[in-house]
Amino acid sequence: MNKTIENTMNELRTDHRNMTMLLDLLDSETLRLLEDGEPDYQLVTDIMTYMTEYPDTIHHPKEDLIYGHISAKREGLEKALQHIEIDHKTLGESCRELLRDLDAISDDSAADRESLAAALRKYSLDLRKHMYWEEKDLFELADSMQDDEAWAELLKSHDIGRDPLFGSSVERRFQKLFNSIQRRMVWDSQQYFV
What does R_g of the chain's alpha carbons equal in angstroms? Predict the structure, then answer.
C-alpha cells in the first residue's frame, strides 16, 4: 500500500468529517432561521466562506485529480465519474450564491429568510448526498488502486494547499468559526455523559 495514496485518501475522508461537522452547525442555524429565531449570520457566512475557500479550491480539485486518474485507468468509468466535476461546480456555484444572499438579506424580510433557509437546506442536503456517494463508491474504488505508483507520483506533484480551519493552524479570519466548533463539541460531549 502506497503511503502517499493512503494519506491522501485519509485526508479526503477527514475533510468529509469536518465538512459534515460544519453542515451540522449550518443546519442548526438554518433551523433557528426557520423558527423565526435569530441565527448567527456571521457564523453562517464564515461557514459558507470556508466552503468556497477550502472544499472548492483544494478538496474538490484533489478529488477531480484522483477521479481523472481512476477513469483513465479503469475502462467504462469515464461516464460514471463525469458527473463529479459537474457536482463540484454546482456545489461551488450554490455556495457563492448563498454568500451573495447572506450579504443581501434583510433581517425584517420573512420572504428573504424563508428563501435563504430553503437554499441553505438544499446546499447542505446536496453536499451530504455528494459526500455519501463519494465515500461509498469512489473512495472504495480509489482504495483498491493504492498500489498504483503513477497515481502516487501524480498526487505528490500536485500539492494543492492547506486547510485554513482544520489545518495545523487556524487562520485569524476563521477563529470565530473554530471557537464555535469547539463549543459545540464540548456541548455535544456533555450530552453523552450526563
Answer: 18
Going from the C-alpha of 140 to that of each of 11, 24, 78, 116, 144, the distances in angstroms are 14, 25, 16, 35, 6
- Does 111 score more than 70 pLDDT? no
Q: Look up the CATH number of the domain holding residue 106.
A: 1.20.120.520
Of 130, 119, 179, the closest CA to residue 20 belongs to: 130
Cα distance between residue 83 and residue 99, in whole Å: 24
Give 137-193 pLDDT, tens digit per residue. 888 888 887 777 777 777 777 766 789 999 889 999 999 999 999 887 765 555 444
pTM: 0.88
**Domain of residue 107, residue span:** 3-193
Please tell me the total count of domains within the chain: 1
Count Cα atoms within 13 angstroms, Cβ side, for 148.
18
How far is 70 from 78, CA to CA, in rounded Å?
8
